[in-house]
Design a protein that fits this description.
This protein has one domain: Roll (Ubiquitin-like (UB roll)), CATH 3.10.20. 24% of the residues lie in helices and 19% in strands. It has 4 helices and 5 strands. It has helices spanning 21-27, 35-39, 68-73, 106-116; strands at 3-6, 11-14, 52-58, 81-83, 93-97. It has a 5-stranded mixed beta sheet with strand order 2-1-5-3-4, with helices on one face. It is globular and about 35 Å long. The model has no long low-confidence stretch (mean pLDDT 94). Bound molecules: FE2/S2 (inorganic) cluster. FE2/S2 (inorganic) cluster binds next to loops.
Length: 120
């Protein structure tokens, strides 16, 4: 059973392999969206590009491959950014929500996650 470490929230969430990352985050009550996305988002269709996450650890195939939508929408974003609504969780992974507005202790949070969550 994969574990998702939501770094910003300091939450470890177990999910079934094959679950959608956005669905898991919302089910757990996590704030996936920034201000713009909280006002209005596409509901997971890959059109609003407000569900950014950065992937900070996990195996290369911890998430499903980039979708065609992501290849277009994330063209000018860091290579470790994904759209949560487009990701299927396949194994344990470290996820940073709202990477566009990181807190000052981001590096420490990620370091802690890498030591304490992976490998599983
Ligand atoms: S929820 Fe709109 S792009 Fe992901």
């Amino acid at each position: 059973m994969p574990t998702i470490r939501f770094v910003r929230e300091a939450r470890d969430v177990n999910c079934r392999s094959g679950e959608n990352l956005r669905v898991v985050a919302l089910r757990e009550g996590l704030e996936l969206y920034g201000f713009k996305g909280s006002i209005g988002n596409c509901g997971g269709c890959g059109q609003c590009i407000t569900c950014f996450v950065s992937i900070e650890g996990g195996s290369k195939d911890a998430l499903s491959p980039l979708t065609a939508v992501e290849k277009v929408k994330l063209k000018n974003r860091p290579s470790n950014w994904r759209l949560a609504c487009q990701c299927v969780v396949q194994s344990s992974v470290i996820v940073f929500t709202k990477p566009q507005s990181p807190p000052s202790n981001t590096k420490e949070l990620i370091k802690d996650a890498l030591v304490n969550v992976l490998p599983r």
